[in-house]
Amino acid sequence: MYKNIYKKIKKNNNIIIARHIGADPDALGSQIALRDIISTTFPEKNVYAIGTYSSKFRFIGSMDKPSENMYDDSLIIVLDTPILRRVDVEDFSKFTDSIKIDHHPFEEKFCDLEWIEETSSSSCQMVIELCKNIKLNMTKYAAERLFFGVVSDTNRFLYYSSTPRTLHLVADLIEEYNISTTDLYEQLYMRNMSEIKLQGYISQNMIITKNNVGYICITDKIIKDFGVDSASAGNMVNNFTYINELLVWVTFSEDVKQNVIRVSIRSRGPVINEVASLYNGGGHPFASGIRLADFSQVDEIIEKLDLICEEYKNQEEK
Ligand SMILES: [Mn+2]
Q1: Centre of ligand 1 from the C-alpha of residue 264, in Å
Q2: Which of 10, 78, 112, 307 has its Cα between 20 and 30 A from that of 187?
Q3: What's the gap in Å between 27 CA and the centre of ligand 1?
């Protein structure tokens, strides 16, 4: 696999690197790191990172402006994205060659070459592995971006997806490139008081079902009242792990700009991505998402999750 990826990179002079819409630090980190790694290894190649600019994560790096002929005769490398409709690119059919590098459960094949590693903590971890296995030059700048992604997708090495391998790879990066983890943690985790206030509101108003599903609808009005943006409201879900009363917890956050209700589901045990896929969503077994048109399906989604929790608890008791 590594060799085949290397061959494609070597063969193509125009390389476009893409990732999913609604970018997060793993998607951006792996994308921007890989751009740096390839253009350092092959200075004669044109390498671009494309997709919507994220001001929230501007510290990770910037995107390249699309220009005429940029896509001509080029290879696209898609990171962190299991499904074509989630790729942040205008017209995928323009590309003559394609590679997918992803750690999400397989959903569909849409690239010529696909490297999927479901047990990897993050796409950033896969890029680190890639550099260890083929002749690509890691840089300090890339190493820092990859650190952002691994840390973010594992929630600071908290999740089960963080394995001894993850820790070894990251420890090596920190040592070899003299990375200041404190500085990077600060960039990644600094927040405004407005977000903490919203977090307090969520704790106060979360509804918890009989079988320990906690959920809350964060409407546009609430988002505006607290002065946060809709993306940070959606990310709140990650702050509610390890709470006795919650087995599964869900935020339904309204995004009026995108005209969508973003559903973020997290779990401490029950497998939830099957429920997500019933609603055209997806993700990992314990961390999934759905996009809804309005709040009308909230109750039925919660009912399904409650049932899964009930079954899980019965299993656990046996
Ligand atoms: Mn990821």
Answers
A1: 14
A2: 78
A3: 6
Assign residue 140 a region (left: φ > 0; alpha: ψ between -120 and 50; beta: otherwise): alpha
Alpha-carbon distance 47 to 61, whole Å?
Answer: 15
Domains and CATH numbers, the chain: 2-188 (3.90.1640.10), 197-317 (3.10.310.30)
CA angle, residues 111, 48, 65, in degrees to nearest 5: 120
For residues 6 and 132, the answer to whether their CB atoms sit within 8 Å is no
d(CA 185, CA 183): 6
List, as ranges, residues with CB under 5 A of the ion ligand 1.
Answer: 26, 80, 122-123, 153
Q: What 8-state DSSP symbol labels residue 84?
A: G
Strand partners, 14: 46
At 134-158, the pLDDT tens digits run 999 999 999 999 999 999 999 999 9
Distance 314 CA to ligand 1 centre (A): 31
292 Cα: distance to centroid of ligand 1 (angstroms): 21
